[in-house]
Amino acid sequence: MASTIRVRATSSGDATEVQALIQHPMDSGFVKDANGEIIPPHFIQQVTFEHDGTNVFVADWGTGVSEDPYVKFSFKGGNKGDDLKISWVDNKGGTDTITAKIQ
Amino acid sequence: MTVHHHGFPATRRLILKGAGSVVLVGLGNIPLGFVAVSAAANDKYPLDAFRQKSEAEAIKSLYGRTAEPSDEVKLEAPEIAENGAVVPISVTTTLADVTSISFLVADNPNALAASYTIPPGTMPSVANRLKMAKTSNVTAIVEAGGKLYSATREVKVTVGGCGG
Questions:
Q1: Where would you tag: which of A33, A43, A83, B118 has the fewest CB atoms within 10 A of its CB?
Q2: Overall pTM surpassing 0.95 (yes/no)
Q3: Burial class (CB in 10 A: 0-12, 13-18, 19+), A55
Q4: B154 CA: distance to closest CA in chain A (Å)
């Protein structure tokens, strides 16, 4: 089954840069559909990025994050071939996770 | 829809489910369907801060103190956002011992847009894409060495990003 998470983690020098793009509607709950009905909120609340057993980054998101959210950050350490695990959970209890290799 | 709870201890989930229900009771202005429970099951999701309307209340809820503007917080945002639904915003800082970075859009229905935990060894730089309902100040907050620093820029929005 295809993951909703696309990630590129590249190591150069002693730092690893991570870019993640996640497929998700990120409905804020403030938008009405064509019938004038509110589209219920449905958005990712937390994304964790784990390397070598610890979180290297945690994203807490609200309704102000764009659809198909993107985030970029860097952390020290991380070697080519290491695993980077990314997991998210949304306000409806939906989740997804992926483990990518640092390039 | 199947609900997955990877590795969350059952008792913690039970306790936090109770906490989630308590949170829901007092909310008069949250659209139906906003479920607090699953978020509360994760470490430290600042639910209360995301519920606040104003920037000041959100920062108070999140950090419990106020921020001072600092040149060392470098906020990058477009002067004009063509599409308020997707506005690229990033921040970096030369401050040391950064533990948290947050972004607020003052004139959004809820000012706090995103908050990031920066563990030791992670660079104090984040790039993300935010929704802006209309022209507004965007503020980046950096928590460093136990203090709060901020930078603010106005971003003009030609087409609002909240679908309204």
A1: A33
A2: no
A3: middle
A4: 16
